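Case 191 in the screening queue. Each case pairs one protein sequence with one candidate compound; here the compound is inosine 5'-triphosphate. For every case the pipeline is the same: read the inputs, emit a complex structure as tokens, and attach any notable structural observations.

Predict complex for case 191.
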Amino acid sequence: MLVTLATSNPHKVEEINTIAKNFDIEFVLPDDNFDPVENGDNFIDNAVCKVLEASKSGKTELYLADDSGLCVEELNNEPGIYSARYAPTPNERIEKLLKNMRGIENRSAKFVCAMVVANKKGEIIYKVQSECKGRIMYERKGSNGFGYDPIFFVEELNKGMAELSQDEKCTVSHRGKALRQVLEWLRNEFC
Ligand code: ITT
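Case 191 output:
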């Protein structure tokens, strides 16, 4: 089964392919100029914006979008849906977050991933949101993954997210949990 993955983030593509390797589903990317307006005020609504924009191509029967981000308890769940836009570069985003966390003892945070599936008529046919709980570390650890991974400590594995292999990350991550539900649902509905 072919599914268009409504993203321009190569790290998401890599992780999604790692998780989907045991399912008979191939993900293809939208055209190079794919740049949807994300004007929702929550993760699900932003995933809907992306999936509907992708479905306009009519390239495949099904479309999947991932909208995700990091929510920090003591920062009123920021950067949240603005995670990708918190500062211009990944490095500056981490610096800004560590600066905003100075002097804060409660480091509780979670990664959130919303996934939405649409068909080629632009109908939303499945939605799911999953989380990965952890803490913001005081300094960077590890060099795997992307985004905020170097400063996120994963409760479940007692390790930094950027210290995990791709397979380990996919087992515990917000994206892994959401995608496994999507894949099970696709298998039941369409295979
Ligand atoms: P698309 O919209 O094209 O899918 P994007 O990177 O802009 O790509 P989002 O709007 O969903 O995607 O923003 C997600 C941001 O949240 C991402 O750029 C990272 O900064 C952060 N993020 C999401 N998942 C992450 C993960 O697994 N590890 C580290 N940071 C993550």
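Case 191 observations:
- Residues 4 and 18 are 16 Å apart (CA to CA).
- The chain has one domain: 2-190.
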